[in-house]
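> example.struct
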């Protein structure tokens, strides 16, 4: 059922196929019931597309939270970034407060986003894996920063809002890095977490 409420393409594809078949029947018979069937399929398809647009699943909520987080980082807005981090993640909050002033970010992005939600635990948890992009300059040295590697973020839902609980970055080789030591030394540092 989630596929229906997360993507309008299956609805439109099935609706187009059934509408085409009803259209062929109407063209061959030219009867009122065939016309009503065609109109019914078109209206049902439009109704399902509107429902898909209106219903926001938890996976889509996490996707929106990720987009909001990336926008806050790109705007170099430390307050907005920290507001999207779980209050229980004190180390992550301090890492953000330490690392954000060191880099002036000009562009962020996420591609190949894969989100899994675990609704069986309370509070609900989610994991997002994606190819992350961060571009900017080090404030102190003026050197360019370009990060384009895999990121895994762990989210927790508190008071109907998804908050970042932790994240892990990977180099292309698959080894972990720790972003703060990397920023402090202007190079990728192996993770000690």
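> example.seq
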């Amino acid at each position: 059922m989630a596929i229906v409420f997360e993507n309008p393409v299956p609805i439109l594809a099935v609706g187009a196929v059934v509408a085409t078949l009803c259209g062929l029947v109407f063209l061959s018979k030219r009867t009122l019931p065939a016309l009503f069937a065609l109109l019914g399929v078109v209206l049902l398809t439009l109704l399902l597309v509107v429902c898909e647009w209106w219903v926001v699943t938890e996976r889509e909520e996490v996707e929106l939270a990720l987009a909001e987080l990336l926008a806050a980082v790109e705007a170099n807005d430390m307050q907005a970034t920290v507001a999207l981090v779980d209050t229980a993640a004190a180390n992550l909050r301090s890492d953000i407060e330490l690392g954000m002033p060191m880099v002036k970010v000009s562009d962020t992005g996420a591609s190949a986003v894969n989100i899994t939600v675990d609704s069986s635990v309370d509070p609900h948890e989610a994991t997002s894996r994606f190819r992350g992009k961060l571009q900017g300059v080090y404030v102190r040295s003026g050197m360019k920063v370009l990060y384009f590697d895999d990121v895994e973020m762990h989210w927790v839902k508190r008071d109907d809002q998804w908050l970042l609980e932790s994240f892990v970055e990977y180099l292309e080789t698959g080894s972990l890095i720790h972003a703060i030591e990397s920023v402090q030394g202007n190079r990728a540092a192996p993770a000690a977490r």
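> remarks
The two ends are 38 Å apart (CA to CA).
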